[in-house]
TrEMBL record:
Residues in Pseudouridine synthase RsuA/RluA-like domain copies: 46-201
MF terms in GO: catalytic activity, acting on RNA; pseudouridine synthase activity; RNA binding
A Pfam family it matches: PseudoU_synth_2
Name of the protein: Ribosomal large subunit pseudouridine synthase A
InterPro entries attached to this UniProt entry: PsdUridine_synth_cat_dom_sf, PsdUridine_synth_RluA-like_CS, PsdUridine_synth_RsuA/RluA, RluA_PseudoU_synthase
Amino acid sequence: MIRHCTENWLSSPSAFYPDNPMSDITDTFIAPPCPEQIDILYQDEHLLLINKPAGLLSLSGKNPQNLDSVHYRLVQLFPGCTLVHRLDFGTSGLLLVARNKAINAALCRQFSERTVEKGYSALLCGHLNENEGIIDAAITKDPALFPRMTICAVRGKPARSHYQVTERFYYETEDGLSLPVTRVALTPETGRTHQLRIHCQYLGHPILGCDLYGGKLLPGTGNIPRLMLHAGELDFVHPVSGEPVNARSPCPF
């Protein structure tokens, strides 16, 4: 399901997909149906910018039951389109889509050269003591705990994230509980698989609703409806016009 959005949200008209940690291991995850639509925020003959709903795969899985995905839906309307980067299943927000191979290559180059700036909003479990900081911890796959990643200074690939506290408050659950949470702005300097999720766990404050990295283990967190992580900012240069593009998507939580 695709929905076109005509709001004026543009201020002006892992480089490749994040590394697949377990391509040789069978994934038994079956994605539940996602009734939410994809919002197409901007499109031209070269690219699309879309708002991905939480609970939708970026790419279809090998299991035929995981056919529905951002790419599967978009390619019906835009044959030959490819995702320039991905978001985790539970993450919502901005995704950049190329409409041909040349544009994909040009955009991937910007990601690989780290000229693309990405910003996320998240709710973390508990109240952080520090108002800002940097998480510098290498990440690698954990074959024993698929699909989890793990922190490993020896085997891991360098990974660095910045965080900035914007609010501390209490999240009211459907069960009537008040959970202490911290709203943070997250800026990944690198683009490793599950980077922000595992870095927040490493910080001691997992993202609320994160089933892989401790965001559903604390009392009252078991029924959180989604992963509280949203890709709300994406800044890059249009590969044809050369104009800077500053995309923004309001946080839904």
